[in-house]
Amino acid sequence: MLRLDGVVKKFGEKRAVDGISLAVPKGQLVGVIGPSGSGKSTMLRMINRLNDPSEGRIFFDDVEVTALQGRDLRAWRARCAMIFQQFNLAGRLDVLTNVMMGRAFHAPLWRALLKLWTVEEKAMGLSALESLDIARMSGQRADTLSGG
Ligand SMILES: Nc1ncnc2c1ncn2[C@@H]1O[C@H](COP(=O)(O)OP(=O)(O)O)[C@@H](O)[C@H]1O
Ligand SMILES: [Mg+2]
Q1: Atom of ligand 1 nearest to the CA of 39
Q2: What residue's CA is closest to ligand 1, atom 5?
């Protein structure tokens, strides 16, 4: 269960996120919609801890995400796995390899650099693509995908 409790993000005087409280049960697939500038990305960045909330707290099960530091924080960022729309995909690499790079935190560095994933890891990556109905594109270069 992911839980946001009164989360606020201020940029100067501006309240980009104005007191969000919500709970997402395990296994639920959720879409967040709203006009440009309504704070969607800022909310995601706080869940991922790329931004810290000005007020409020975020929990994942019993862990207070907003209190994590050091190695625990890096582990959370890897696990939370934010995928950016416009950038941070390696366009020259295929789709599955881009997905597998999300495992880099869990594999020894030399394995990630050489792209030596285990069969289990590849199956995990393909299954993640399948859940988004894009497994058939796993061998395509990432820069041949549409932005969304
Ligand atoms: N780093 C920042 N500094 C100042 N204002 C920001 C920053 N990031 C976002 N904002 C402002 O916060 C508001 C919400 O932005 P954002 O979360 O990107 O909205 P969305 O993703 O819904 O389009 C916007 O008004 C945006 O200009
Ligand atoms: Mg956005």
Answers
A1: 17
A2: 11
CA distance linking residue 26 with residue 3, whole number of Å: 11
All domains of the chain in start order, with CATH? 2-80 (3.40.50.300), 95-144 (no CATH)
Q: How far is the CA of 117 from the centre of ligand 2 (A)?
A: 32
Picking from 96, 16, 78, the residue whose alpha carbon sits closest to that of residue 51 is 16
Give the angle 27-28-33 at the CA atoms, nearest 5°. 150
d(CA 4, CA 11): 19
Average pLDDT of the chain is 89
Q: What's the pLDDT score for residue 148?
A: 63
